[in-house]
Amino acid sequence: MRISARADYAVRAALELAAAGDDASLKAEAIAAAQGIPHKFLEGILGDLRRGGLVTSRRGGNGGYQLARPAAEISLADVIRVADGPLVSVRGVRPPELSYGGPAESLLPVWIAARASVRKVLDEVTLAQVAAAELPAEVQGLTETADAWTNP
């Protein structure tokens, strides 16, 4: 799985909003500065998050962005899907739409299993959990395996 810069920036921006609290608004400039995200790129991402129903925005001196619902109700997958589309695709196609023949026929279940694994983590971890550094035990456990932090 590849996490694009766009998805990474979207999640980090959403985490800044989550950490600010339910009633706080943050300006795009403040989010960009806090996370080292190019401001113009972030504006586009925040627009997508707004259109996707994850953030709201207000104009004016007291304006800014805030989460559209509590951080505990927004998963990392929600943010990534709005920013980048499906969590797992093969050549831009969702796995259930693929068809293989011959010796590659059993490859499709592998792609489906990979998608299910990614969903299991990203659909279950919320912005609130990450912002509070309180990851679910199952996710934390995955990071504690001997090879989790190394590249083969």
Automatic annotation (TrEMBL):
PROSITE patterns from the UniProt entry: HTH_RRF2_1, HTH_RRF2_2
SUPFAM superfamilies membership: Winged helix' DNA-binding domain (SSF46785)
GO terms for MF: DNA binding; DNA-binding transcription factor activity
Pfam families per record: Rrf2
Organism encoding this protein: Streptomyces triticagri
Keywords: DNA-binding
Name of the protein this chain belongs to: Rrf2 family transcriptional regulator
Record has Zinc as a keyword: no
Cellular component annotations (GO), alphabetically ordered: cytosol
